[in-house]
Structures are given as structure tokens and as C-alpha cells.
Amino acid sequence: MLVGWDTLxxxxxxxxxxxxxxxxxxxxxxxxxxxxLMPALTQAxxxxxxxxxxxxxxxxxxxxxxxxxxxxxxxxSDRDA
Length: 81
What we know:
With 81 residues, this protein is mostly helical. Helix content is 44%, strand content 7%.
């Protein structure tokens, strides 16, 4: 199983092309702090992790799905996946 993560530390190519709706700064910071821990936790649980600066989670999922020799199920809430 591969778990893909969006980059939180630097903007992705899509973020640099479009603006996102603003959220309350304190809520956003708390969420980002928690999300920053998730890739390491996911890897510690034995899953393969896809994350790199400037890439979105669906970039990794699409690349893995394209290369996988068998059937693939992609579970995502991303509407443009």
C-alpha cells in the first residue's frame, strides 16, 4: 500500500498557480502541525510513503498506479484525481 502526502513545507505547482481560500490562521497552524507528523507515522506502520517537495499526493498515487502490473484501487477525496 502506498500513501501519498501533499507537501506542506513548500508550495506545490498547483498552489503557485491558483489561490486557495483563506482559513483562520490558528486553526490552520494546528492542523499543519498535526499533518506534518502523519507521513512518519504512516511509514512506521509499514506503509510506503510518497512525499516530496512541490508534489501533491495524487502525483504519487497516479505514478504508482501507472507502473503497478495488476489491478489498482485509488482511494482519495481529491476531486481532480
